[in-house]
Backbone:
């Protein structure tokens, strides 16, 4: 897990230092499966109702604040995004008692060339998840694994092409972060607004 540098520790109430520290934790969340930020709750709107699910953080850009995750293009979350780009992403680090509530817009990236590079680097165990016969959320008559009836290491060229045809990335453009650190001596809460040239505001918790 990312450890806060001493210069940031000495300045815990400096909003820019706090943001810098969270960017580092998000970066660690991309790289480290055991990091608290490796998975997060992604919420879309469907028929005027919130729909939430857990997804895995796959990429991050702090210069133009954005994060990415991978999904099956047959999933309902993809339809939600195409219908309403407004989303919420929720991260929580239990060890630091820090919550990040992100509001922004999302897009489905299906650009074949860039996605192919990512796909080729994935393990067979990850790829096979995109090769199941049923679309995510499809109703079944009874339980059965939504997987090919073969080992991930027995995937052939046809299987690989099928999986890739269903693979896409979802990009979240971060417009606002509500940062909250729980503390019995007094919770700390900040709002970072990136639509207004990184406007930073302390708010009540």
Residues:
């Amino acid at each position: 897990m990312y450890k806060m540098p001493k210069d940031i520790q000495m300045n815990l109430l400096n909003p820019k230092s706090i943001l810098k520290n969270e960017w580092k934790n998000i970066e660690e969340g991309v790289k480290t499966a055991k990091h608290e930020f490796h998975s997060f709750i992604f919420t879309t709107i469907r028929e005027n109702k919130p729909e939430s699910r857990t997804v895995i953080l796959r990429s991050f850009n702090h210069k133009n604040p954005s994060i990415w995750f991978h999904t099956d293009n047959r999933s309902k979350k993809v339809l939600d995004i195409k219908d309403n780009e407004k989303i919420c992403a929720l991260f929580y680090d239990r060890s630091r008692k820090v919550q990040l509530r992100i509001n922004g817009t999302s897009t489905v990236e299906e650009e074949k060339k860039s996605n192919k590079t990512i796909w080729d680097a994935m393990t067979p165990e990850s790829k096979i998840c995109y090769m199941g016969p049923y679309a995510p959320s499809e109703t079944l008559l009874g339980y059965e694994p939504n997987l090919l009836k073969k080992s991930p290491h027995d995937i052939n060229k046809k299987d690989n092409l099928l999986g890739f045809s269903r693979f896409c990335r979802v990009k979240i453009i971060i417009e606002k972060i509500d940062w909250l650190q729980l503390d019995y001596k007094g919770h700390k809460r900040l709002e970072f607004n990136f639509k207004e040239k990184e406007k930073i505001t302390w708010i009540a918790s």
